[in-house]
Amino acid sequence: MATVVSVAIQKGGSGKTTTALNLAAALHRQGKTVLLVDLDPQANLTQSLGYGEPQGITMYQLLRDEGAGQDTDYTRALIGIREGFDLLPAALELAMSEVELVSIFGRERLLSRILAPALPKYDFVFIDCPPAVGMLTVNALAMSQLVLMPLQAEFLPLKGVKSFHDFTLARVKKQLNPDIDLLGIVLTRYDERKTMNREVLQQLEAAYPGKVFDTRIRTNIALAKAQELGTDIFTHDDRSKGAEDYRRLAAELIDRMKKTKK
Ligand SMILES: Nc1ncnc2c1ncn2[C@@H]1O[C@H](COP(=O)(O)OP(=O)(O)OP(=O)(O)O)[C@@H](O)[C@H]1O
Ligand SMILES: [Mg+2]
Known about the structure:
Blueprint: E1 3-7, H1 16-29, E2 34-38, H2 44-48, H3 59-67, E3 79-82, E4 85-88, H4 95-100, H5 110-115, E5 124-128, H6 135-142, E6 146-152, H7 158-175, E7 181-188, H8 195-207, H9 221-228, H10 233-237, H11 241-260
Parallel strand pairs: 1-5, 1-6, 2-4, 2-5, 6-7
Antiparallel strand pairs: 3-4
The structure holds adenosine-5'-triphosphate and magnesium ion (MG).
The site of adenosine-5'-triphosphate has 20 residues, from α1 and α9.
């Protein structure tokens, strides 16, 4: 049965998509089966896997049909990237879901219902969330056991983390999904030579003890390049710092999951 992980925080450009993609790719290389779900209308994850213009069905139609009370077959939208490494793509039209789903009965659990038949088939499902807390993110959180928050250490991000953790997550846990837990916070585009980066790390560790990943994702242009080329970091440059960091993050994730027993 899959462990469902939402990669989420309302702050834009914090490394969510890069982390969802490359962490999933790292776990796949370690023999895990992974489903990536692009739940962001920006469709960066879909583009980053080389499907800039998805021709077929995307998350938008699945959510719309599920919302209309139809039986939705998620495999209609499924793109097989590699054996055991699949993508449910997004396109810009997904932005309409935020509005269209508001008045639907059971609106927070549409994604959960769509993906229920997929869960026995994968070890992991990673959901790449948009940088906002709307219907899409709430649907992702409602069905996740774990949340991973990537964060760029450049700016003082504590306020954003606090509002996401103390408000959004706490409410989801209380009202929708008591099983959800914060897996951890991972710092991205980290440069330990920068005082600000070290300060952010210290503050986060003080505010969320035990929740900050030991692995930090360093700034590495190969990560951006891989996305531009429509592939993951390991396929693009297996020996880059980015590949090394995401490999290490995958190992730490497995370790942390053993500790939280998920
Ligand atoms: N460690 C890194 N080193 C260099 N560039 C990075 C790194 N991580 C991410 N980037 C680049 O920074 C940009 C933002 O990253 P990403 O798209 O993963 O953030 P995001 O949180 O998903 O953004 P959004 O909130 O818009 O969805 C991308 O162009 C990506 O290639
Ligand atoms: Mg993104």
